[in-house]
Amino acid sequence: MTDMLPSASCPFCRIAAAYPPIPPLTFSQHKQEITGGAVFSTDTTQETHAHLVLSTTSVLAFLDIMPLTRGHVLVVTRDHYEKLGDMGVEVSREWLPVISRVVMKTIFGTDQESDWSWNVVQNNGIGAAQQVPHVHFHVIPRPPLDAAPTAAKMSFVMFGRGQRDELDDEEGETLAKALREELASEVWRVRERERVDLDVDSACVRYQRTKGKL
């Protein structure tokens, strides 16, 4: 395991610094509803702004600014690790299946869950197409092959090939809000059905105290 300090040149480190941990259930209908802007940031620059879906003490999730498909989400470690082999076992791993379900439910609905298709991709090193040297996972929904005339071409597009258009800010925030709301519902579902509490309220409090904000 390699311990690394946040990198001033790393865009994901800058995003992590701009967005403190927030309990996912903040967006649940069971609690006071708070808008994305009020919760996640009051002072971000264009350089640190992200269409945030999740922010915990160990990971963040936000929309890719150059998505391969609608709903393309990045899951990144809060701490700076260049490659997967640099990480220790203490870094949370439970969020990948949760974010996968959240993305697919938001993009495709729940009518045909058995037909969902998506990629979870993680690259290590320039030779493996890693563009940002900070551990991150891509969660990429794949449209049904018969969904649109271009879907067959888009369905298996991978990195370095195909068209990637820049994410529109207004569309991005609308989609991020829908993803955050679905995430809150998923956290409740996991709590009730699997008896696992994914809400990070107490962890967020500890984080704020260590940063001298409480």
From TrEMBL:
Domain HIT span(s) in chain numbering: 39-149
Spell out the PROSITE patterns in the cross-references.
HIT_1 (PS00892), HIT_2 (PS51084)
- Give this protein's Gene Ontology molecular function annotations: catalytic activity
Where is motif Histidine triad motif found? 134-138
InterPro entries (alphabetical): Histidine_triad_CS, Histidine_triad_HIT, HIT-like, HIT-like_sf
- What are the positions of the active site? 136 (tele-amp-histidine intermediate)
Kindly give the Pfam families that the UniProt entry links to this protein.
Answer: HIT
- GO biological process entries: nucleotide metabolic process
* Protein name per the record: HIT domain protein
